[in-house]
Design a protein that fits this description.
Shape: elongated
Radius of gyration: 23 Å
Strand content: 5-15%
Number of helices: 15
Oligomer: single chain
Helix content: 40-55%
Strand order of the largest sheet: 2-3-4-1-5
Structural class: alpha/beta
Number of strands: 5
Largest sheet: 5 strands, parallel
Length: 332
């Protein structure tokens, strides 16, 4: 999803004005390096810039309208003028005939990806657009061979082709690559802006949970888009209402976190635990303050254990038992 223009203007004013001036004055660099801390809206802004280069009806600041045919085709990765190598471990929302990201999960950028990029633009004829754009995410983790191959591509820029490299740590990128790009530095996003951005795709309670739990925008949106997300959220709500009940524990074992099931995965167990912690910290449960403190301690310790290799079924059984004991002690 492209970056909300008003949020970009408010939260990243230098980025906004830098790109706006380039778009309005038609002085675009042939390559950009978007860099800044994890969680800053680099990928979303890259998509907005790509759309803006091709938009049929840009606004007064030069940015894309987001509604025209070209904007929609870029967002859906259906344009012959747009190539996107997604971040490591992410699953693209769209896989089409025109993109090379067919795998379920992407890996670090390799030389073959640069070869694919060059072949992509050579094999497809340009559409009626002002530019042809490629985005390379996680470029700070590219292989040496990939960087050497891209350097040759950047040294002889082809008219009308623009690149956007995205990196959390620009110090991991060859100086020769950096010197051929215009660097655009992002600052960390505020919690308020992250919540606002997430409320465009989910409810506010979920948005606040993700931000308080330390998820990045990209991580949160990836989880929200999956069918398991509402199941995990509801499971946390139901469990926290009846966590002293053996029947509820049995339901968790047989209906939610079933051995070898899709949900029996660290990312979903972590999310379920984050929901519990969020509900406890925000006093959404009818329990005493001392109980809240004890439950928070149990969950914090459990997060540390979950980072190491662990038998997930045994881990959860122990967690259920610890929580049940604390809740029952309060009732005595």
């Amino acid at each position: 999803m492209p970056m909300n223009k008003e949020i970009l203007r408010q939260e990243q004013p230098i980025v906004y004005h830098t790109l706006s001036n380039a778009l309005k004055n038609k002085r675009l660099a042939h390559a950009y390096l978007f860099t800044g801390p994890k969680g800053s809206p680099k990928a979303e802004t890259a998509l907005l810039l790509a759309q803006s280069m091709m938009c049929q009806h840009p606004d007064a600041d030069g940015f894309a309208c987001g509604q025209c045919d070209q904007c929609k085709r870029v967002e859906q990765e259906e344009s012959l003028d747009f190539f996107w190598k997604h971040a490591i471990g992410t699953i693209p929302e769209k896989n089409t005939t025109f993109t090379h990201t067919k795998a379920k999960k992407t890996e670090r950028l390799k030389k073959q990806d640069i070869v694919n990029l060059q072949a992509f633009f050579e094999a497809t004829s340009a559409e009626k657009a002002n530019a042809r754009v490629y985005i390379l995410e996680d470029y700070d983790q590219a292989t040496q061979e990939a960087s050497n191959s891209l350097l040759k591509f950047l040294e002889e820029p082809q008219p009308g082709i623009y690149g956007i490299l995205i990196a959390d740590d620009k110090n991991m990128i060859l100086p020769t690559i950096q010197s051929r790009c215009q660097t655009v530095i992002f600052r960390p996003p505020s919690k308020a802006s992250m919540i606002q951005a997430l409320t465009e795709v989910t409810d506010r309670d979920s948005a606040e949970m993700f931000v308080e739990s330390g998820y990045t925008l990209a991580q949160a949106k990836e989880l929200i888009d999956q069918e398991a997300f509402p199941i995990i959220k509801q499971a946390a709500i139901d469990y926290s209402r009846n966590w002293d009940s053996y029947a509820e524990i049995s339901r968790m074992q047989t209906k939610i976190f079933i051995p070898k099931s899709t949900l029996m995965d660290k990312k979903w167990i972590r999310l379920w635990m984050e929901w519990l912690l969020y509900r406890i910290k925000n006093h959404k449960l009818p329990i005493a303050f001392e109980t809240e403190v004890s439950l928070q301690r149990i969950l914090v310790e459990a997060f540390d254990i979950l980072r190491a290799p662990v038998d997930l079924a045994l881990f959860l059984d122990k967690l259920y038992t610890q929580i049940r004991k604390v809740v029952l002690d309060e009732k005595r």
